[in-house]
Each structure stands twice: as structure tokens, then as C-alpha cells.
Specification:
600 residues, alpha+beta, six-stranded antiparallel β-sheet, elongated
Length: 600
């Protein structure tokens, strides 16, 4: 009774069938599992309970249990409502039964369990695919730094197998001077940039982040490592480009703001050495008169011997660069042979490689930029392009400096011609009026000295000199009958004579070059108290240059012999100048004049 009660109330299937599969007995649990009544099941063959797809395997099951006396595995059955279930069975053959050989069958419905296991396996497979498919290296670490898990990317990045990872501590991946990420909660560093070490010993940049995870009650550290070698290389390349652009900007600024060729070349060569990472560089300028390339500037040389460089176009490496107007690279100067005409000059330099760039501006060869390196160098296309760009900048600097020098020379010649013309006009005036011969030169020199004493700048003094030379140019418009009259002038004649400052203004104002010098020819007869002519200016209305000249003009007039009177003594002239201070003359100018000339 106890066994029957147990069999009838157990949830697993218990029954028997013969060697043909006919069901002999079955417990009530089978009815519940299959959704069929007890009597129906006991009239069926076990084969009929299987799903159609596996019924042809039933004979194999029967043969196996007869041969081995036992069979276990999974059985796929079909319920009354068409559902499908999975039974896990463990069946045994009994030969001592009163009814002949029978199979005792024990089965348990494991459909839900297997479905859950399959779902778990699928989930694990998806997790593993994701885990191994991520491009970043992922580690699971124990509190003491042991690596508990590593993905495929970690193997690829570091060069270890997964088995090797699981046998090592994370400290093996970290250079000695780097602090390992802590696993204590609240102290996880990241994301942070640092360096790690590969299996081959190579140190490379990484970005690391991590967080604490609790697995089976144990705190572990989940670490994600990203190899940022390419990013760092890109950043370095961008920074290099920015540095090179900044260098070009600095060179441009030097070229545009400074016409001194040596200053521009000095800045350019500094940038060549720093941006290209070479040992030495120099610029040879072309002397067009004899087609010689001559040293102009250099940086990075151990001895000054390079300064003696002089070679014709076509001679040596630099001569070839200039003649052929193309970049030349000599990887090994020791093999250059006769091409390296300066071997004696460079013997103590230890140079291995040579680069030469022609400096061409507006179709004209200006010189050659030379670059030397003492160690092996494998230049990339970008490096070569930047070298040529610097060569272009050097050519522009040379062109600008030469143009500026030419303009300066032309301007100097023009200024000299102008000043010679002014001196000629002045001399013509002196020749016209024999009584005042030499007067213009004297007052010009004294006026310049007084202007300098009063602190006027060099540019102002230049215009004062020209104005003093031309102070009486307006008298060219005064008839000889008045200008050279021996006797006293009539009122009408004085009116004509006093027009000469206005005539000077009319003559000189159209000449832009002489406009800054007009103050003396136009205003030197104005008086401090306003009684002068031609405009009756008063005080500081009178230009300073004219106020200075007025004192010197009167001084020279009264201290020079005239047909109608003898020259005054210096003492008498000084007294007169002092007496006219505040009337005819500016008091400050008088004070400066007396301070300079009274004791002299």
C-alpha cells in the first residue's frame, strides 16, 4: 500500500512496457503530463506518444535496451492537445518478471528546465559574442589583481593568449613606474590616460576606465582598456601641423614686418631646425653678377667653416640644385664623391645626409636652402613637402629684401637728386643777388643746429634744411629792377617785395615732396607780435620752423656786410636779438639761440 501510494502521488512518470513498446502500466502522473485519461494511455504503444519527427528512431531505442538492459536520454513526446514536451528518462529491462521481460520506465518532464538552460546558453553565447566582439580590451580582475577573465580584443591588443592572461596578475601589463588601478569601491580611477606594456615589451598609450562589480559575493573590478595609439598619433600629427602652420605664420610675419634679410633668414632657419628635426641648415644666395652661390646664413654647424661656401651653378650638390632647380636628396654624403665639393669644409661636421631646395621667386633663382643630418633619416612625403614650403618662404624673404633694398637705393638716389635740385635753386638765388651771396648756406646750417638744440627729430630737421635752402625762392618772382635796386624801395616796390613768401607758397605747394618744407619759405617774415607778413600770424600761430629760422635769418643779415652798411658786431647783434624777444621773435627760440651761440 505504501509503495502504491508513493507511485500514484509522485509527479514523475512511472510505468512499464514490453519489448515491442506496448504500455503495460502507467501511474496517474502520466495522465496529467499527457493530458489523456489513464485507460487510453494503457492501450497505446510508447511509439505513438513520440512526436512524428523521432518515431523512426524508436526501434533503435528498443534494440539498445534489449542489448544493454538499460537506456537513458531525452524523449520528445506529444500531448493530447498537440503540445510538445521533453522527458528525461532512465529505463531498465527486467527479465525476472512473472509476465516475461518488461521495461521499467522512469521519466521526468524537463521541458521548462531545458528551455531555461537553452535560454541561459544563448544568453551566455550572446554575452560572449559581445564580450569578444568589443574592440576594447576587457578584463575582470580579483581584488589582488589576478585576471579572472579577458576578451579576444585583450589578446589581440596585448599579444597574450586567454590562458596566459588567466595565469597572470594585472601588474604584468603595467610599466614599473605606473600605479595600478585600485579595486576599492569609491577609488576607481578613470577614464584616464596612461601607458601599458604588450607581450613583446612595447609600451603603448591606453585609456582605462573601471568599476567594481560583485560576483558570487566577491568584489571584482571590471576594467575596459582602449588602445589609443592611433588617436595619439593623430593628435601628434595635428599638433605637428599646427606647429608648422604657426611656424609659417611667424616666418610670414617676419618677412612682412622686417626688411632685414639676415633677421628673416635667422628666423626661418630656426624654424627649419625645430620643425623638421634636422641638425643644421643654411642659405646660399646667388650672386647674379658671377653666377656664384655664396653663404648668407646658417644654423647648427659645429665650426664656422661653412661660411666659406662659394660655388658656381652646377658645381657640387648645391650647384646642381641651383642649376637644375629641383630638390636633391643625398642619403649618404660619403658616397657623393666629387659632387660634394665642400668635403673639406664639412669634414668635422659628421654629416650623413643632405637635402637641397632651390629658392625660386617669380621665376628667378635666388639661392639654395641646404639641410644636413648627422643620423639616418627616412623623410615622409609630408616632411618633404614642408621642406619645400619653407624653401618657398625663404625665396619670398630674399625677394622682398632685395626689392626693398632696390627701392631704398632708388629712393636714396631720388632724394639725392631732389636735394641737389634744391641746392641748385638756392645757389641760383645767391648768384642773382650778389649782396646776399653765401647767405642761404649760412642760415641753413645755423637753423639746423638750432632746431637740433631745441629737440626736433631727424625727420623734421630734414624738412627744415630744405625750407631754409628755399626760404627766398619766392624772390624769383620779384623783378630785377626791384630786387637789385641800389636805393631805397618805394611803398609800391615794398608791396611787391613782400609778396615773395606768397609767391614761394604758390611755387612750392604743388610739389608734394616739398610741402613739409613750406613753413619757412611761407612764414619766415611773420613776427611774434603779429606785425609780420604775408598773413599777420601771431605767437604760436607761426610754425615753429619759421620761428626758428626768423632769428637765424636776422642774425645773419645784421652780421654780414652790405653795400649800404657795415656788419654789426656779435655783441650788438646779440643785444638786438634779445631786445626783439617777444616782439619779432619767439622768446623760447631766442633763449635757445643765445644759449647756443652767444658763448660760442
Amino acid at each position: 500500500d505504501r509503495y502504491r501510494d508513493l507511485v500514484e502521488h509522485i509527479h514523475d512518470l512511472i510505468g512499464t512496457h514490453d519489448l515491442q513498446g506496448n504500455i503495460l502500466s502507467i501511474n496517474p502522473a502520466a495522465s496529467k503530463l499527457l493530458g489523456m485519461n489513464h485507460e487510453t494511455i494503457q492501450k497505446m504503444n510508447l511509439r505513438d506518444l513520440l512526436i512524428p519527427e523521432v518515431r523512426d528512431q524508436f526501434e533503435d531505442y528498443l534494440a539498445a535496451i534489449q542489448k544493454n538492459g538499460q537506456a537513458s536520454g531525452l524523449m520528445y513526446v506529444q500531448t493530447a492537445n498537440g503540445g510538445r514536451r521533453i522527458w528525461e528518462y532512465d529505463n531498465t529491462l527486467r527479465l525476472d518478471s512473472a509476465d516475461g521481460p518488461i521495461v521499467r520506465a522512469l521519466a521526468r518532464d524537463v521541458t521548462e528546465r531545458l528551455q531555461a538552460e537553452n535560454a541561459l546558453r544563448e544568453s551566455e553565447a550572446r554575452y560572449r559574442d559581445i564580450f569578444d566582439g568589443v574592440q576594447e580590451a576587457i578584463f575582470v580582475e580579483s581584488p589582488d589583481g589576478r585576471i579572472l577573465e579577458a576578451n579576444q580584443s585583450a589578446c589581440k591588443i596585448y599579444g597574450y593568449t586567454r590562458a596566459e592572461f588567466l595565469a597572470m596578475n594585472v601588474t604584468a601589463l603595467v610599466p614599473e613606474d605606473y600605479a595600478v588601478l585600485t579595486t576599492e569601491i569609491g577609488q576607481i580611477s578613470g577614464p584616464m590616460e596612461t601607458v601599458n606594456r604588450r607581450a613583446n615589451g612595447e609600451v603603448f598609450p591606453v585609456e582605462i576606465s573601471g568599476r567594481v562589480e560583485t560576483i558570487n559575493g566577491e568584489a571584482t573590478l571590471l576594467v575596459v582598456v582602449r588602445d589609443i595609439t592611433e588617436r595619439k598619433q593623430a593628435e601628434e600629427k595635428i599638433n605637428l601641423q599646427l606647429q608648422r602652420l604657426s611656424a609659417l605664420k611667424e616666418i610670414d610675419r617676419a618677412i612682412s614686418s622686417n626688411m632685414d634679410l639676415h633677421v628673416s633668414l635667422d628666423i626661418l632657419l630656426n624654424q627649419v631646425l625645430s620643425q623638421l628635426g634636422v641638425d643644421a641648415a643654411s642659405v646660399l644666395l646667388l650672386n647674379t653678377s658671377d653666377s656664384l652661390l655664396e653663404f648668407a646664413a646658417g644654423k647648427g654647424y659645429r665650426t664656422p667653416a661653412i661660411r666659406q661656401s662659394r660655388m658656381r651653378l652646377g658645381e657640387g650638390c648645391a650647384g646642381q640644385v641651383g642649376l637644375e632647380r629641383r630638390v636633391i636628396h643625398v642619403p649618404d654624403l660619403s658616397l657623393a664623391g666629387e659632387q660634394n665639393q665642400r668635403a673639406v669644409l664639412l669634414k668635422d661636421e659628421g654629416f650623413m645626409q643632405y637635402f637641397g631646395v632651390p629658392l625660386v621667386a617669380k621665376g628667378q633663382l635666388k639661392g639654395v636652402l641646404e639641410v644636413f643630418q648627422r643620423s639616418p633619416l627616412q623623410p615622409e612625403a609630408e616632411w618633404m613637402h614642408y621642406l619645400e614650403t619653407l624653401g618657398g618662404q625663404a625665396a619670398i624673404a630674399i625677394e622682398n629684401a632685395q626689392m626693398f633694398e632696390g627701392l631704398q637705393q632708388s629712393n636714396l638716389e631720388l632724394v639725392t637728386a631732389y636735394d641737389a635740385t634744391i641746392a641748385g635753386w638756392s645757389h641760383a638765388m645767391d648768384l642773382r643777388d650778389k649782396e646776399t651771396e653765401g647767405h642761404t648756406q649760412r642760415v641753413t646750417e645755423l637753423t639746423v643746429q638750432l632746431a637740433e638744440r631745441m629737440g626736433l627729430g631727424a625727420r623734421q630737421v630734414v624738412h627744415i634744411r630744405r625750407g631754409a635752402l628755399l626760404h627766398d625762392i619766392g624772390k624769383l618772382g620779384v623783378p630785377d629792377s626791384i630786387l637789385l635796386k641800389a636805393g631805397k624801395l618805394t611803398d609800391e616796390e615794398w608791396a611787391i617785395m613782400r609778396r615773395h613768401p606768397a609767391l614761394a607758397y604758390e611755387m612750392l605747394s604743388p610739389i608734394a615732396y616739398l610741402k613739409p618744407a613750406l613753413d619757412i619759405p611761407y612764414c619766415h617774415h611773420e613776427k611774434w607780435d603779429g606785425t609780420g607778413y604775408p598773413r599777420g600770424l601771431k605767437g604760436e600761430e607761426i610754425p615753429l620752423a619759421a620761428r626758428i629760422f626768423a632769428v637765424v635769418d636776422v642774425w645773419d643779415a645784421v652780421t654780414s656786410d652790405r653795400p649800404y652798411r657795415a656788419a654789426w658786431s656779435k655783441e650788438k647783434a646779440f643785444d638786438y636779438i634779445r631786445a626783439e624777444s617777444g616782439k619779432h621773435f619767439d622768446p623760447e627760440v631766442v633763449e635757445a639761440f643765445l644759449g647756443k651761440f652767444e658763448q660760442g
